[in-house]
């Protein structure tokens, strides 16, 4: 794929055709059409959603849900079933509690029922939706009734409620669908459904949440009964990467739950009893009035907290969830540091609630609890401690998965940043606070300021929970109160996130030398010489007979072509490299790989997509005769008439007069494009400076360079058996047939030397039309190639190479997880355009948008 930089050697691409008269297709409509394709093939889902909204509109329920009278007739709950309204488990499917409920239910149905219909069929999807709704609601109502009889305060509070929502059946249908998915997506879908249902039930706490949770459970059982062929059901072992992802999702859910609950005014789930500790809330008007009635200092204090929420420092109110989300990212990458910090956070929460429970048991009246309410308080404390306890148990059980340690340099850098931010924040609060001590009530003393430091770094709900802090009343004092802690935590969280996301590479000092020796001795694919370029790291199999060159970008281990080394060890290297990446939390991606690598990857359950086409010219019988070689013969004859000759050089040994012209031609090409020169598999001037690379220059009688090509060896048993085209440039004002002339001259020269073939390499995002219908991802890549054609000329380059009558060999991108395509795409873009400026990025986006 490394001849893309050669587009200056081809005729300029014709401008894209303008819109035809009467053409009403717009880009946004085309995009919308692609997004709606899955829904269009789900008529049952669309019909159900239409009925849902029509029923809501006809009954006037879209705004605030069914009226009280209608809710009593169609809503399901303990009262409706107790009074004999047996149809309510089914009728609750056709209404939602309000406009937000209708929108949310529509999203859930589209995400869960649409793929279910396409995979399971209409009949089974309809059965899962209706059956899950009925059985899930019956099970949920039964649990609520049983909990009420057992004296569980939360479930007892739900015994008078009624609920309507199709999401109970939708989650059941999604759970059934999970049994028809691959192992990777099966776990993710089940975890997503379970996390959503648990968060809504245990944090928000409404009856609807309990019914959803039971619907998901019923769907799991139904799916196992319908599609699981072996009993008893056994848990499948997940890879290191997938296990880390699942644990990270659990930790993230424990952070997101309180943030979701805060959106509901009447959230009262068992895990939300002390919601203000997770997400601090602004004091109410009544609390402000009560504080001001108590004393002037209390009044100043409550106003300072109220003003805290009216400033950017309000971010501190969600500090606990933000910390957990950042740690979840570190857990996703398998880092021991993130695991240790997550354990400490959950231990802190358990210790904090244990301390408060002890304080409550010692002084229950100070907490405002009547004797009859004390058991409820104890239960609330116990329920609140349950979540961090369960997360802690999960972390301990999966400890072995998080074994990646940061380099000492990264740890020292992180400690320096965090420690420096802490010192600056403390010094500012104490030093400046002492200078404006009269702006506190009472006037601040060094002891009070130092004692109040702890509260500065805690959320507002923890103010004065451990030490007394001076109350700020003046402008500077209030700024210190708001922003010292915010400054520290912003620096700390950003530093943690950057450290977690920075690739950790451990390479041997002689890895590049070993890789080149292995490549020279055994060879590889036509692009394997690219593995010797700077920027690559190397994985070797245990016997040292095969290797993979790669670079890590945003946790994607992007390979440079196929494995190379002993031919019989290359296929096994695909699985070996995959395990190596899995242990480090990376997503492997074999890029510009051949059919053999693709087959080895697909044997592991990977997906693949064609990204280019290698163009190979056999040399033994090459002769530029016949009509199909007319353009090449014309270039050779014209060059001879104009006195242009082809000269072989090693770039480092070429005269300065020639190398300076080559640099000038290259810079001219880059400047003319206005966009960055691509890298990764596309060589530039730096890659010419290798003694194994041969450069062929088109030079006239005045020693003017009209064009240049570079050729990389393809080894077999220690000798070059073929050559691959890399660098191509021609002077804008020079001989127009210089590229045809240089490639034809190189082919004839290599033929005389006994080489078997010449590879013209591949053009990214360009391929020949095939009879095989392109998949969705292939269509996206084809569209990207079309959009970038006027800029980089991918398709023109492929058409140009057709002049040499090559054999076409597809080149693929093989990847293990479709869910990682977005990050893989970003990694590839960054690999090709590592130095793109902001202006070039804007220009490239304009090209896409045009």
Keywords for this entry:
alpha+beta
- Shape estimate: globular
- Please mark out the parts with pLDDT under 50 across 5 or more consecutive residues, or reply none: 1-25
Count the helices. How many? Answer: 33
Largest sheet: 12 strands, mixed
Radius of gyration: 34 Å
Show the helix and strand layout.
Blueprint: H1 27-40, H2 43-58, H3 68-74, H4 78-82, H5 88-91, H6 99-120, H7 122-149, H8 153-156, H9 167-177, H10 183-204, H11 207-227, H12 240-261, H13 275-278, H14 285-294, H15 296-309, H16 319-332, H17 336-362, H18 374-397, H19 408-435, E1 440-441, H20 446-451, H21 453-456, E2 471-472, H22 475-501, H23 511-522, E3 537-540, E4 546-553, E5 556-559, E6 564-565, H24 570-583, E7 587-593, H25 595-603, E8 607-618, H26 630-641, E9 645-649, H27 656-673, H28 685-688, E10 694-699, E11 705-716, E12 719-730, H29 738-753, E13 757-759, H30 776-792, H31 794-801, E14 807-815, H32 821-832, H33 838-849
Parallel strand pairs: 5-7, 12-13
Antiparallel strand pairs: 1-2, 3-4, 4-5, 4-6, 7-14, 8-13, 8-14, 9-10, 10-11, 11-12
Give an overview of the whole structure.
By secondary structure, this protein is of the alpha+beta class. 55% of the residues lie in helices and 10% in strands. The protein is built from 33 helices and 14 strands. Strands 3, 4, 5, 6, 7, 8, 9, 10, 11, 12, 13 and 14 form a twelve-stranded mixed β-sheet that branches. The radius of gyration is 34 Å and the shape is globular.
Could you give a short description of this structure?
55% of the residues lie in helices and 10% in strands. The protein is of the alpha+beta class.
């Amino acid at each position: 794929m490394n001849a893309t930089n050669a587009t200056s050697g081809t005729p300029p691409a014709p401008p894209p055709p303008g819109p035809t008269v009467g053409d009403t297709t717009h880009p946004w409509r085309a995009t919308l059409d692609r997004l709606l394709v899955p829904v269009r093939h789900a008529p049952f889902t669309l019909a159900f959603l239409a009925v849902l909204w029509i029923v809501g509109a006809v009954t006037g329920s879209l705004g605030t849900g069914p009226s009280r009278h209608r809710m009593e007739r169609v809503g399901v709950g303990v009262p409706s079933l107790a009074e004999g309204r047996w149809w309510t488990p089914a009728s609750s499917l056709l209404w939602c509690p309000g406009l937000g409920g209708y929108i949310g239910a529509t999203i859930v149905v589209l995400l869960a029922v649409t793929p279910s219909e396409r995979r399971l069929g209409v009949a089974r999807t309809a059965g899962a939706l209706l059956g899950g709704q009925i059985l899930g609601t019956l099970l949920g109502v039964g649990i609520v009734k049983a909990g009420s009889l057992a004296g569980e305060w939360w479930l007892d509070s739900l015994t008078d409620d009624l609920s309507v929502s199709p999401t109970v059946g939708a989650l059941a249908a999604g759970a059934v669908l999970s049994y028809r998915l691959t192992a990777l997506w099966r776990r993710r879908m089940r975890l997503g459904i379970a996390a959503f249902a648990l968060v809504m039930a245990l944090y928000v706490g409404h009856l609807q949440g309990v019914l959803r949770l039971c619907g998901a459970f019923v769907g799991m059982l139904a799916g196992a009964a319908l599609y699981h062929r072996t009993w008893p059901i056994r848990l499948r072992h997940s890879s290191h990467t997938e296990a880390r992802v699942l644990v990270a999702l659990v930790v993230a859910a424990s952070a997101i739950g309180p943030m979701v609950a805060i959106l509901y005014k009447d959230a009262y789930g068992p895990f939300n009893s002390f919601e203000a500790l997770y997400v601090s809330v602004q004091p109410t008007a009544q609390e402000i009035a009560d504080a001001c009635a108590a004393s002037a200092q209390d009044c100043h204090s409550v106003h300072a907290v109220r003003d805290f929420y009216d400033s950017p420092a309000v971010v501190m109110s969600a500090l606990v969830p933000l910390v957990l989300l950042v740690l979840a990212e570190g857990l996703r990458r398998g880092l021991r540091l993130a695991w240790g910090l997550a354990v400490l956070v959950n231990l802190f929460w358990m210790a904090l609630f244990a301390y408060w429970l002890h304080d409550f048991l010692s002084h229950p009246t100070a907490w405002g609890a009547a004797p009859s309410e004390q058991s409820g308080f104890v239960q609330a404390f116990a329920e609140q401690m349950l979540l961090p306890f369960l997360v802690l148990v999960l972390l301990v059980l999966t400890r072995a998965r998080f074994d990646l340690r940061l380099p000492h340099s990264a740890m020292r850098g992180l400690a320096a940043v965090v420690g420096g931010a802490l010192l600056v924040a403390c010094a500012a609060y104490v030093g400046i606070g002492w200078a404006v001590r009269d702006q506190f009530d009472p006037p601040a003393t060094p002891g009070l300021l130092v004692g109040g430091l702890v509260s500065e770094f805690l959320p507002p709900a923890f103010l004065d929970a451990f030490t007394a802090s001076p109350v700020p009343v003046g402008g500077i004092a209030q700024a210190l109160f708001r922003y010292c802690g915010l400054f520290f935590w912003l620096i700390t969280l950003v530093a943690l996130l950057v450290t977690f996301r920075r690739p950790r590479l451990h390479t041997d000092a002689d890895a590049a030398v070993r890789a080149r020796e292995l490549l020279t001795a055994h060879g590889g694919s036509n692009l394997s010489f690219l593995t010797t370029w700077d920027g690559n790291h190397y994985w070797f199999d245990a016997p040292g007979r095969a290797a993979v060159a790669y670079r890590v970008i945003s946790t994607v281990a992007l390979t440079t072509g196929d494995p190379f080394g002993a031919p019989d060890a290359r296929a096994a290297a695909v699985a070996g490299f995959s395990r190596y990446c899995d242990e480090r939390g990376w997503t492997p991606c074999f890029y510009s790989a051949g059919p053999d690598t693709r087959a080895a990857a697909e044997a592991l359950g990977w997906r693949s997509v064609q990204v280019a086409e290698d163009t190979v010219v056999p040399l033994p019988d090459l002769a530029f005769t016949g009509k199909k070689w007319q353009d090449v013969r014309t270039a050779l004859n014209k060059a001879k008439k104009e006195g242009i000759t082809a000269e072989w050089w090693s770039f480092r040994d070429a005269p300065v007069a020639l190398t300076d012209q080559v640099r000038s031609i290259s810079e001219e090409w880059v400047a003319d494009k206005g966009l960055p020169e691509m890298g990764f598999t596309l060589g530039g001037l730096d890659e010419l400076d290798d003694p194994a690379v041969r450069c062929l220059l088109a030079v006239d009688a005045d020693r003017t360079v009209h064009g240049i090509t570079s050729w990389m060896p393809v080894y077999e048993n220690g000798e070059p058996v073929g050559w691959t085209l890399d660098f191509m440039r021609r002077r804008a004002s020079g001989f127009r047939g210089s590229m045809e002339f240089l490639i034809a001259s190189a082919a004839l020269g290599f033929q005389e030397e006994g080489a078997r073939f010449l590879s013209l390499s591949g053009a990214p995002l360009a391929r020949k039309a095939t009879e095989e219908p392109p998949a969705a991802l292939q269509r996206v890549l084809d569209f990207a190639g079309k959009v970038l054609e006027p800029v980089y000329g991918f398709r023109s380059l492929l058409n140009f190479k057709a002049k040499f009558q090559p054999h076409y060999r597809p080149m693929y991108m093989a990847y293990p997880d479709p869910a990682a395509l977005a990050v893989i795409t970003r990694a590839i873009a960054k690999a090709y355009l590592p130095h793109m400026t902001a202006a070039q990025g804007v220009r490239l986006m304009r090209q896409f948008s045009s």
